[in-house]
Design goal:
This protein is mainly alpha-helical. 62% of the residues lie in helices and 0% in strands.
């Protein structure tokens, strides 16, 4: 008796379903890939037509820009030139088409018929889409820098705003519909400016909460001035009392308090950011040290009956 071995039908080869592949498969089946739609994405030759419209100017190289003193961190952000209308049209369309193509492949995934090559193609398309998105973001960072420069009171604040505004800029790139005929800079300016305004308001509110705590112990010093001699005597007495109290703090607490309230010979108290830069800590950590030191001084003053 002759046994005839059945041949597998030609087509997709079965993939050995390892735990890793099954985990990736479940992850992609449950994750919808969002994109800005275009009426021609589903046409068979759209990809070929789109590639044919790719502007050659996208291949140009960019010379590194020189940096101004104190603004070295900004130079890399403005090296990439703004996109022309044709470049912008192409890149946004290509980015969303890659996401569209990845979503079409995702919908073909099947737990009962795992296909690692299909997952690889999805992830490859999304990596390419991310690369395009990042190029658009880099081309518009100069917009963020310009807006931050207009509303910032210092270089430090400008750096903070630029860092904060990068997130809404990325989000704006992902949501922008180039098919409506508007320039991206118009849409992005609105999103970034609103985010910066919220950041500045949040910072102002935080500072308003901090100042009363910082001034609490100084405000409790009584004003008993009567004549110049008496005023001088009381001033010296207070200074001695303050110095005695400061000696109860550890070195870091004492340094923060003296710098914050101008007790180290400075004409005025230093800001939390200035102190943070000086000691190599975050501004929030310096604030916590200052508040803890004030509470310690108040406790000691209450116990000893000092002028605090």
């Amino acid at each position: 008796m002759i046994t005839v071995k059945k041949q597998r039908p030609a087509g997709r080869q079965q993939t050995r379903c390892t735990p890793e592949i099954r985990a990736r498969l479940r992850d992609w089946i449950e994750r919808e890939i969002t994109f800005v739609e275009h009426p021609m994405f589903a046409e068979g030759d759209f990809e070929r037509q789109l590639k044919g419209r790719r502007p050659q100017s996208l291949d140009r190289t960019v010379e590194p820009a020189g940096s101004e003193r104190g603004l070295a961190f900004i130079s890399p952000m403005v090296e990439t030139p703004l996109l022309t209308p044709d470049e912008e049209q192409y890149l946004f369309t290509w980015m969303n088409y890659l996401k569209f193509r990845a979503e079409q492949l995702r919908q073909k995934l099947n737990l009962n018929c795992p296909d690692a090559s299909l997952i690889d193609r999805i992830e490859s398309d999304l990596r390419d889409a991310t690369d395009v998105r990042n190029r658009i973001v880099r081309s518009n960072l100069r917009l963020v820098v310009a807006l931050a420069h207009k509303v910032s009171a210092s270089i430090d604040q400008m750096g903070e705003l630029i860092g904060e505004a990068t997130v809404p800029l990325i989000r704006a790139v992902e949501l922008f519909d180039v098919g409506l005929g508007n320039r991206f800079s118009t849409y992005a300016t609105w999103a970034v400016r609103n985010h910066m305004s919220r950041c500045l308001k949040r910072r102002q509110t935080t500072q308003e909460r901090i100042v009363p705590h910082d001034q609490l112990w100084l405000d409790r010093l009584p004003d008993e001035r009567s004549n110049p001699d008496e005023e001088a005597r009381l001033t010296n007495q207070r200074a001695d009392a303050v110095q005695q109290l400061l000696m109860t703090l550890n070195e870091r607490e004492r340094m923060v308090i003296t710098a914050r309230f101008g007790l180290d010979g400075q004409p005025r108290g230093q800001s939390l950011q200035d102190i943070a830069d000086r000691v190599g800590l975050s501004k929030e950590r310096v604030r916590q040290i200052a508040l803890a030191a004030i509470e310690k001084l108040q406790g000691i003053a209450k116990t000893t009956g000092s002028v605090m």
